[in-house]
Amino acid sequence: MLYCGRCLQLKNDRWPARAIENHEFLHESRQSFSSLFGSAQHQDTFCSMPHFENLRLKPHKGLQAADLIDLRQINVICGPNNSGKTTVLECIASKDLRSLGVNADPKVADRLAKASVRSAGWANTAQALDQRYFQAVENAWKTRPCWFAGESQELWDPIGLIWRANFGTWASPDQALKHQFEQSFPTIKAELVPPKRRLELTRRAGREQIRTDGTGLLNFLFMAKNQEESSQVRKDYDRISEAFRNITQQFEFELFSTKTQRFGYDFAAREVTG
Q: pTM higher than 0.85, yes or no?
């Protein structure tokens, strides 16, 4: 049983309708929301959003290099002050300081082989050679638990060593395989959120873009809360609410307005029975 605390309910009659129906503001806010958190299309919750699975961090400040393997949607970096936690986050946030990695899924190897075999000298005219090439790619692919962007040559090397013995003088599809390999890594935008030492519990109403430090989010949430359930901004709000419950183990937040045209929110634990 979790303690169920006081939860302030939203009072629509305490906020001018013209502000709640400010669609231009909502459109601008949702654009900044999408740029930070991604589109809601084909996504029911934040948990379905793409995330880093494997990362290779390049040398930066005091960090020599590091591989982060098998990451989850929520990961915690622990360490004393000045131990390099922020340096790790800076590497993750910068596309120039990290390389994405993909797990060595056999399905990916099969896709790479079938997409590149068309560039081989026999050009899909010899099924036996196709199968031999597919097997060579699979064998090279499974030599590692994961592969990082920029390692296309390392994938081709073991195939190249056996090429003449297995394929004679046929032209190799090495460039096609390398191209397909580098195209296998998803594009994931990262934002480095600065630490906030004080939680902002109220905010004056106004037009604000959503920023990584949390500025503008409270205004967006209040506006989005008051839209039709079928609207996209309301769906964005519902996604945030569900993600908040999942991350905080069933805590909820509610928004309210004051007579001085400020927004605020309160937190409460959801009562769980059984």
A: no
